[in-house]
């Protein structure tokens, strides 16, 4: 049975006959960029309020942003607290990385779009929707680097959807004989679970050999990641006997959180003849500066709800593909990827409003991400000093999230232990923070130890966003210190009769080292 075709988000590279401007764009659109940055306008202006219905542009693909008279005044601390007053003030919320956040002003704009939709559905779909989505695509295009045309941006539900689109393209290539059975797909060991499932559901089922890149954690430097990537790529190529059709690279891994040297890894792929590169950057936009042209991947996708202050369900997959069967002209491709029918599009329509919110901060989104990085590193070092541990990655490999080792005496020996500790911190101490169980040692090296000589097997992943304050991290610090002082271990939370890894080692039921990094094929 033929494989189902998802909406394509891929574009055609320009031919040698295109203009110099188009060559720089690496995509088929050669629209003049002045339409996105007219004189005396905010570079990423907001979509209209719901009662301002804008006629659809003739091209059906781009719309000029609405004009802004002047830059807004810098937001105050009181205004920040007001924007996030809907957060539970009793909880230390230092986990922006999982679900993100949305300020009240953006939620209000979303409500206006929803009311416009409900007031006259036909007028909304035929008059307001496409111009609104075009403004959002224009805002995203400006946020991911110079020279990106809105026609290259498609708004879909989330990174999992974008990954499925790319993996279906790979599956079709196997089904139609362009790829040979056994050709490789390369991914990081810490690739997000839903993306891994997509790789196996589409690519592996169609005949791909899946090869994982084992990453050391804690990680010492970007060069350590690049070395592991090169070694795994050599395994994938199998001495030149196997083609590597796709590499899936995270810009920032989710858990453990590490800023990956993505540009360097893409360059390695190009040197080694990897057909296509898909960058899963779910956490990147709003957390680190992005220039998709400079990165050079074929596909780049990021979530807007995590660090870009949008509600859930707004994501741009940015394609830079070479010519192939699924390519289509930009207006049709963008609409085909994003169009579902009768649904709530409001999360995608408020992207310019999120940009307006960020413009109220000194330095805009770049200033926000820079301050978040500095603060999360400062708070991470404070926690590490208090617990006698260390950061899981050097500061230059942290964005607005950081991994900090927990005292080894807590005995976090499994993912289940990590979840129980997380639940306990939420329920007993009112702290919301993810816990990571590090089950993978580095071959030939002992697990890292804390100041008391205990192996560190558990880490917290802290985030910093504009609404966070130091006192929230101090609550986490004091909660962990209390657990250590009280002699707490995860064994106390396990169901009766269930042993952790450390218990099994003591009983001689597991070999030691019980976890080592090995290159393997899935």
Q: Supply the CATH superfamily name of the domain at 364-521.
A: Aspartate Aminotransferase, domain 1
Q: Kindly identify the CATH topology of the domain at 364-521.
A: Aspartate Aminotransferase, domain 1
CATH class label of the domain at 364-521: Alpha Beta
| Uncertain stretches of 5 or more adjacent residues | 1-62, 314-318, 321-335, 501-522
Share in β-strands: 5-15%
**How do the helices and strands follow one another from N- to C-terminus?**
HHEHHHHEHEHEHEHEHEHHHHEHEEEHHE
End-to-end Cα distance: 24 Å
Secondary structure category = alpha/beta
- Work out the helicity level: 25-40%
Q: What best-fitting shape do the alpha-carbon axes yield?
A: globular
Corresponding CATH architecture of the domain at 364-521: Alpha-Beta Complex
What is the overall number of helices?
18
Provide the spatial order of strands within the biggest beta sheet: 7-6-5-4-2-3-12
Tell me the total number of β-strands. Answer: 12
Mean pLDDT: 80
**Rg of Cα set:** 24 Å
């Amino acid at each position: 049975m033929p494989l189902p075709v998802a909406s394509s988000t891929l574009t055609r590279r320009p031919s040698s006959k295109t203009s110099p401007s188009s060559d720089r764009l690496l995509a088929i659109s050669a629209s003049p960029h002045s339409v996105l940055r007219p004189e005396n306008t905010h570079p990423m202006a907001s979509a209209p309020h719901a009662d301002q219905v804008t006629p659809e542009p003739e091209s059906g693909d781009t719309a000029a942003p609405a004009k802004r008279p002047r830059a807004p005044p810098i937001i105050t601390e009181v205004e920040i607290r007001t924007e996030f007053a809907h957060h539970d003030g009793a909880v230390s919320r230092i986990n922006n990385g999982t679900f993100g956040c949305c300020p009240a002003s953006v939620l209000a704009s979303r409500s206006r779009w929803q009311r416009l939709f409900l007031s006259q559905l036909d007028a909304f779909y035929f008059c307001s929707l496409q111009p609104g989505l075009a403004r959002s695509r224009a805002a995203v295009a400006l946020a991911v680097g110079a020279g990106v045309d809105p026609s290259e941006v498609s708004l879909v539900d989330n990174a999992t959807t974008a990954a499925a689109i790319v993996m279906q393209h790979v599956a079709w290539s196997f089904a139609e004989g362009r790829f040979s059975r056994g050709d490789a797909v390369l991914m990081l060991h810490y690739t997000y679970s839903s993306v891994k499932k997509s790789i196996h559901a589409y690519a592996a089922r169609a005949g791909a050999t899946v090869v994982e890149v084992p990453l050391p954690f804690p990680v010492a430097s970007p060069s350590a990641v690049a070395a592991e990537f090169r070694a795994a790529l050599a395994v994938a190529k199998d001495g030149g006997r196997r083609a590597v059709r796709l590499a899936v690279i995270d810009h920032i891994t989710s858990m453990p959180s590490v800023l990956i040297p993505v540009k360097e890894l893409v360059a390695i792929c190009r040197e080694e003849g990897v057909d296509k590169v898909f960058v899963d950057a779910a956490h990147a936009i709003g957390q680190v500066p992005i220039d998709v042209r400079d990165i050079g991947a074929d596909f780049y996708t990021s979530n807007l709800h995590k660090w870009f202050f949008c509600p859930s369900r707004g994501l741009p997959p940015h394609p830079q593909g070479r010519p192939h069967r699924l390519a289509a002209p930009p207006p049709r491709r963008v609409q085909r990827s994003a169009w579902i029918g009768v649904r709530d599009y409001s999360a995608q329509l408020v992207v310019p409003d999120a940009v307006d919110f960020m413009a109220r901060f000194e330095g805009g989104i770049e200033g926000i991400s820079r301050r978040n990085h500095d603060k999360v590193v400062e708070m991470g070092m404070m926690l590490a000093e208090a617990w006698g541990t260390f950061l899981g990655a050097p500061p230059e490999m942290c964005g607005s999230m950081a991994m900090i080792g927990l005292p080894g005496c807590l005995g976090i020996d499994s993912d289940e232990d990590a979840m129980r500790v997380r639940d306990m911190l939420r329920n007993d101490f009112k702290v919301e923070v993810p816990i990571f169980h590090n089950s993978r040692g580095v071959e030939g090296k002992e697990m890292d130890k804390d100041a008391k000589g205990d192996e560190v097997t558990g880490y917290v992943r802290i985030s910093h966003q504009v609404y966070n304050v130091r006192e929230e991290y101090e609550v986490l610090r004091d909660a962990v210190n209390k657990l250590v002082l009280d002699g707490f271990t995860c064994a106390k939370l396990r169901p009766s009769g269930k042993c952790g890894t450390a218990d099994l080692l003591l009983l001689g039921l597991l070999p030691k080292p019980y976890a080592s990094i090995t290159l393997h094929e899935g």
